[in-house]
Amino acid sequence: MGTGATEDMVSETTSLERYAGLRAVSRPSRLALVVALLSVASGCVTYALLTGLTPYSPDHTGLIALLLVNLTLVLTLAGLILWRLARLWATRQSGRAGARLHVRLGGWFSAIAVVPALLGAGVAAGAPELGPGAVVSGPGEDAPGDAGEAGPGYVEGP
């Protein structure tokens, strides 16, 4: 009884078989994943460098290199997205089963992702008094500054 339970819990797949499962994912999809992860890492590094969170402060040449790395990653992602859209359009034109549904679902999910960002940007650009500044106006406007002055008193004690 003890050995049967242990045998059931042992995985039957080897690492080579699991890697073969990853090979089923297309090369452009793997490339898109790698480029997306590199873009996130590049964005974090860019933010850290530009806000002074690192001891290194880039000079003019360093900023140009950072810009080129970010631009390369963004253009690569844009190219992969355009390639995928072209494949999707060609599939739809060929009349394959489910192609129209795929286009419709992709369109809806894209709209759901993009519309809130565009609305927020439009409100912030068109009516600054309705943007984030409107939330902290009035009597509470000085609260962050007051908290910054009061904070050291609490840390130091009476």
**Count of beta strands:** 0
Q: If helices are DSSP runs of H or I spanning 4 or more residues, what is the number of helices? A: 7
How many discrete domains? 2
Which parts are unreliable, with pLDDT below 50 for 5 consecutive residues or more? none
Radius of gyration: 26 Å
The rough form would be described as: extended
End-to-end Cα distance, whole Å, is 68 Å
Proportion of beta-strand residues: under 5%
In helices, the fraction of residues equals over 70%
Mean pLDDT figure: 78
- Compressed to H and E, one letter per element, the order equals HHHHHHH
Oligomer: single chain
User: Could you describe the largest sheet, including whether it forms a barrel?
Assistant: none
Helix/strand class: mainly alpha
Task: Describe the structure in your own words.
The protein is 78% helix and 0% strand. The chain has 158 residues and is mostly helical. The protein folds into 2 domains: 10-94, no CATH class; 98-158, no CATH class. Helix 3 (27-51) packs antiparallel against helix 4 and helix 4 (60-94) packs antiparallel against helix 5 (99-126). The longest helix has 35 residues, at 60-94.
Features:
single chain, 158 residues, mainly alpha, 2 domains, 78% helix
